Fold this protein.
Amino acid sequence: EVQLLESGGGLVQPGGSLRLSCAASGFTFSSYAMSWVRQAPGKGLDWVSVISASGGSIYYADSVKGRFTISRDNSKSTLYLQMNSLRAEDTAVYYCAKGRTSVKSSPFDYWGRGTLVTVSS
Amino acid sequence: EIVLTQSPGTLSLSPGERATLSCRASQSVTNSYLAWYQQKPGQAPRLLIYDASSRAAGIPDRFSGSGSGTDFTLTISRLEPEDFAVYYCQHYGISPLTFGGGTKVEIK
């Protein structure tokens, strides 16, 4: 059974940093692209970043480019999102999502339950 | 950036009725790389349709997708009580991989 378990969310002040993790199990992690998608309270889905299976291709939404860094450790089956210079508008539930293939051009066939990030003073 | 516009914003229907949801792209979607997701309150989204018309694993055949280029449709042939939710379209051909604003299907 595919499982994605996010962790690392919490309350942080504007300008602060957080590192999210997503522990994956139930599939060959190193064979699939992975993404982060967020959802602000009461709002729609907002794609954040994607990383290919090998880690060689990475893309970001313009809203987070230069502030967020996606990475993966295939030996640990874990996806990461380093978030710096956080703003109030980054407040959201952050979901880890598995791509259906190894490349970025892939829909998300499994999702974690999400971790809440709140940016507030 | 491809902007996806979903309509209507809210669809009020009764169980057993047919639901037709629209997703219009600001430019042509590469290779029909268009997906539909269902999200219920407090839950993560679930993949329904990918490549515009392929059903994901375990999805009932009352859900179908169609379209190409810039116009796509999700059809639910007969609404079941568990189908009342919010539905999002998403393209995944080129970065950024944007989502539409969503259509809420509510009980009339």
Remarks:
- The beta strands of chain B are 4-7, 10-13, 19-25, 34-39, 46-50, 54-55, 63-68, 71-76, 86-91, 103-107.
- Residues 49 and 55 of chain B are 5 Å apart (CA to CA).
- Chain B is about 0% helix and 45% strand.
